[in-house]
Amino acid sequence: MKNIVTIQDMYKSFFGVVAMDGMNFSINEGEIRCLVGENGCGKSTLIKMISGFYAPDEGSLTINGTPYKRITPAESIANGIQVIYQDFSLFPNMTIAENIMMYDTVAKKRPFIHWKAMRKRAVETLERIHFQIDPDLYVSELNVAQKQMVAICRAIVQEARLLIMDEPTTALTTKEVSKLFDVVAALKAHGVSVLFVSHKLDEVLEICDSITIMRNGKNVYDSQKGDKVLSKEEIIFYMTGKRFSNATYDFRDPGEAPLMEVEHYTMRGAFQDVSFSLRKGEILGITGLLGCGRGELAESLFGLIPADSGSIRINGREAGIFRKVDDALAHNIAYVPEDRLTEGLHLDQSIADNAVSRIIGRFAGRTGLLDIKGLSRQKEESLSSMSVAGMKPQNPAKSLSGGNQQKIVLIKWLASNPDILILNCPTVGVDIGAKNDIHGIVRSLASEKGVGVIVISDDIYEIMQLCNRVLVMKDGKISMETDVRNTTMEQLETYLASEEEGGAAS
Amino acid sequence: MKRLLKHNEALLFLLFVAAVLLFSLVNPQILTLANFYSLIRSSAIPAIFALSIMLVMCCGGFDMSFGMIGAFSSYVVMFYLTENGKLDTPVLFIFLAAVCIAVLLQLFNWVLIDKLNLQPFITTLGTQSLLKGLLLAFISTSYIYVLPHQVTKLGMTYLHTATYADGIEAQLHVVVVFMAVMYAAMHLILQYTNFGRQVYAIGGDVDAARRAGINVSQVRFLVFVIAGVICGVGGVMHDAAARCSLPIPADLVGKELNSIAAVVLGMGSQKKARGSVLGTLLGVFLLQFITGNLIMLGVPSYFQQAVSGLFIFIGLIVQMAGSGRKPRRKGGANHEGA
Prior knowledge:
The complex is a heterodimer.
Chain A: E1 3-14, E2 17-28, E3 32-36, H1 43-50, E4 58-63, E5 66-68, H2 73-78, E6 81-84, H3 96-108, H4 115-128, H5 144-157, E7 162-166, H6 174-189, E8 193-197, H7 201-207, E9 210-215, E10 218-222, H8 232-240, E11 260-267, E12 271-278, E13 283-288, H9 294-301, E14 309-314, E15 317-320, H10 325-330, E16 333-336, H11 340-344, H12 351-356, H13 372-383, H14 402-414, E17 420-424, H15 432-449, E18 452-456, H16 460-466, E19 469-474, E20 477-483, H17 489-505
Parallel strand pairs in A: 3-8, 3-9, 6-7, 7-8, 13-18, 13-19, 16-17, 17-18
Antiparallel strand pairs in A: 1-2, 1-4, 4-5, 9-10, 11-12, 11-14, 14-15, 19-20
Chain B: H1 2-6, H2 8-26, H3 33-58, H4 66-83, H5 91-115, H6 120-139, H7 149-155, E1 158-163, E2 169-173, H8 175-192, H9 194-204, H10 206-211, H11 216-242, H12 256-267, H13 277-296, H14 301-322
């Protein structure tokens, strides 16, 4: 088995900050290796070393048996190394066929374009990975999974020998992920190596032959093909250097009337006849496959999209259907959206301003002018309620990492002392350390302040860690409800998987 | 051919036909050859300039200075020749001189936008204002009515003459040949050359273009050079057709947004969002046809502008409907999961 890329004792620092601290890495022909590690551990630096965008300070890089002091992007491509970035780098204003052939067109430097030959090769490539789609569609019309397939085709046209995929499954449904894995397996059969860079441990375990775990700029664990598969807990341990407790949330029912009762909530085409209740201090998980209606349910509970029928009772009093966000706010409900970048934060505004944006109205006097002193006291108070590493209050919110941004979203909502907190996929794209922090905050909110929390998530691990009760949705209906103590992760996963099988058969 | 029909050029053409039929109900003269010739005459110069801004927009840029650059380059040449009594200069030389000036001015834009990374819209608005001021302050403010002989001759070269029912003549002006050649050349460049692919790629996503190994700066350089060539030729043709040269011709400077409207109409729906040569031509013709014929019907000019505005809306709405774009729903459950 030949090595495609070997890296030995590599060091790299940027302006005194060490990004790569004695990294060793190798990948063989036809191997599927996964690279995992927390945000900022040096994964992307490693990719950029291999693809030629960064030069190492020290260490050796050997590609296809040739040692390089540093490699240029063009040499890297000539060696068959192709990176598929998270954003795919496709051209939205071109068709699928044009996109697939674009790199080839640029690389070959022929002055004129032969449309027929170009289209023919694009179609052949699509067929090679059994991807059936009209090659004349514009890329801007495609969904994420289709775009990814186009990006893969483009890499194959370039005779890729090593395909590096950065977070390839983040926005894919379970079905799309398994399709992607089929394609990867087919590539492997043709001798192409694949390096997966991923946060999602379940998938890592499923697809890889081998794994490299990075922490603080170096590899802390490497396995080879055929080695024993690590458990998820062990991977997390290597990634973070910490062991996290697996204790579930211990909910004690105060015995009062339910905080929120949802009855026969229905939105055509999204969910039907959803009924559940939420008690004080309870953390209720809602999960299900993509398209089961959980996202729409979360949004309708906050009045973002109104339901068609049903009703909500808050503290035993009828509240009807929430038709707009103000209805939900009036009942002291807080909502942390799924997409914090576009819905949760004002990215260009300062962290401090974001932290008080929910309650800024309280500081406006009768004249409409703001009480600046009171507001800055509130900013300090809000921001000191949680530890956010490396944060400067006057910096824009976009300067924070994903996990810390999510903390600011929480701070913003907690300032209003909500009775009910709805979290829609609260830890997507957040690394394990910050995820654990967020879970801790949510748990203490529920147990100490008696906030009722609803967590919508597709991350079973998160549901098991965080919640005391879980609802599973299927085709817009609640198909299962259980106390987490009466189930296990495996049981829930098997239940969801069987559901998908059933769905595919019908 | 199938590719073309599937897309917005076809819709735009249908809209154009619909406008022609609508107007012909009121004025049967519209369906005459003579009226067609006068439409071409009024559209050719705006069409040439629209081609320049279209290329820049295909590359993801913007230009508010193309009209001024065309007017400036031609006026400076005409002014020099008439002041020095060189009225016998061959027209080819005049074109070359104007093109050189226009290319240099567009490269000035290139330096500001590509090298200094300035915002294109404001930058080129600055170029426009700068040229206007320099021209009036240092060169001349007067109209030039006696142009070099060959330019005057070019301005009166007609390929064919047709007559309206009332005996008024309309000629097919030679400018149509220039327009046709430039449009054909641009179509070939954008559609069938590697350079054309790279222009569209940069217009689609600059970062992705860099990752594809495209030398963005170099491609933009060529784009501005070609835009300059078009402006230079357009400037001289404008003066030839108008039979005089003005420092700030009102039909070029201040009307840039009309050309941009034509390009955007030609681009069509959001999903494609890439400039097309045929689309731009149809866009220019549609807008010129509407204003020209409202004049013929004796509609007051304020009303003409309102109708042009309405047609721009209609064009955009028809194309959006044609592309089957779904309205965005609040909430965004479509990108859920992850």
